[in-house]
Structure formats: structure tokens, C-alpha cells
Write a structure and sequence with these properties.
Blueprint: H1 2-18, H2 31-37, H3 41-70, H4 79-101, H5 103-109, H6 113-117, H7 120-131, H8 136-164, H9 176-191
Helix pairs in contact: 1-8, 3-4, 3-7, 3-8, 4-5, 4-7, 8-9
Length: 200
């Protein structure tokens, strides 16, 4: 029964991080690349996949770092710097591996990897994971769900912006204006999932 409850909690964490607690649309973290890269669906999807991968593994690494290095040595106050170092090191490692073993994928994602390092959604997910005291599995689920939620948001925005090119938009709303209005409407739509798993 306990294992069943734990599994349900993991599913709820993952579901809420994708929809109701979407790190982009609920907390507005990672807005810079969201607005800048959401002009083409293919580009947005490539960046989104990279964010899912990095978020999942950096949450795992930062959880291990926090619980097995910072807490035992009473260095919890050092977590901001440690998390940033871990994220930057992991992204650099991924970049080197891709360049060595998959030049084609590196060429496609190479421009996105530096953006991921400075994406505040990556650091935000690790900090939320600590504040909410998630377990290791819960942290990985939260990282994965946050990445998927971020990817859904940016791909959806890219699709909408693609359609807006052929529509007449008032001059005062063109560019970032209409993008932020759409982002607000998307946030309302995602928050509409609140309570879906409440009965579990």
C-alpha cells in the first residue's frame, strides 16, 4: 500500500510540474529563451528536448550533491553556487560528448546548449526540489516533468506564432506584446488542470 501511495505521489509530482505547476507558465522562469526561440517549431522542439534532458539529470545530480555533500558538511547555504557549478559542468560535459560521438546532433543542438546553461528554469527546478523536500525519485520526476512542461509551452507558442504570421495583428501588439498576451492565456489554460488528480 505504501509503495502504491509513493507511486501515486510521483505521478502527481510529474503531472503537476507539466501542467498546474508549469515552471514557465506558473513561475515565469526561462522566459528569455521562451520568447527568443519560439519563432520556429523545429528550433523550439530542439531546445525543448535539450531542456528536458538537462533538467532531468541536473535535478538528479543536484539532489545527490545537496544530500551527500552539502548537508553532511553543513554547507546548505552554499547550494546556489554549487547548483550553478553542477549545471554548467553537466551542460559542458554533454556538449563535449555530443561533439565527440554525435557531430550531427551537436551541430543541431550546439546553439541551444549555451542557452540552457543560463536558463533560470534549470536552477529554479533544483531550488524548488530542495524547498519542497522531494525524494530522489520525486526530484527526478519533478525535473523530467518540468522539462516536458517547458517544452510543451515553447513548442505550443512556436506553433501559435507561426500561425500569427499570416494574420493581421495591430501594430502596437506585434512582437513581444502579443507573445506575452498568448503566454498569459496559455498559463490560464494550463492552470485549468488544477484538481484533476486531487481525488487520488
Amino acid at each position: 500500500m505504501t509503495n502504491s501511495n509513493e507511486f501515486i505521489n510521483i505521478v502527481i509530482i510529474c503531472f503537476s510540474s507539466i501542467f498546474t505547476g508549469n515552471i514557465l507558465l506558473s513561475y515565469f522562469l526561462g522566459m528569455c529563451p521562451f520568447i527568443a526561440v519560439s519563432k520556429e517549431v523545429k528550433t523550439a522542439f530542439g531546445l525543448g528536448m535539450a531542456v528536458v534532458f538537462v533538467l532531468t539529470f541536473t535535478c538528479l545530480l543536484n539532489w545527490l550533491t545537496y544530500h551527500y555533500i552539502l548537508i553532511p558538511f553543513q554547507l546548505e547555504f552554499f547550494r546556489f553556487i554549487m547548483f550553478i557549478i553542477t549545471i554548467a559542468a553537466f551542460v559542458q560535459f554533454v556538449e563535449m560528448v555530443l561533439e565527440r560521438y554525435s557531430p550531427l546532433l551537436y551541430t543541431n543542438l550546439g546553439i541551444f546548449l549555451p542557452l540552457i546553461t543560463v536558463n533560470c528554469a534549470i536552477l529554479g527546478a533544483s531550488l524548488f526540489m530542495v524547498i519542497r523536500d522531494y525524494s530522489l525519485v520525486g526530484s527526478v520526476a519533478y525535473g523530467f516533468g518540468s522539462g516536458v512542461g517547458w517544452m510543451l509551452a515553447i513548442v505550443s507558442m512556436a506553433g501559435i506564432r507561426k500561425r500569427l504570421v499570416i494574420n493581421k495583428i495591430p501594430k502596437g501588439l506585434q512582437g513581444p506584446g502579443i507573445t506575452l498576451i498568448i503566454a498569459g492565456m496559455m498559463a490560464l489554460a494550463f492552470i485549468g488542470f488544477t484538481g484533476v488528480l486531487q481525488g487520488q
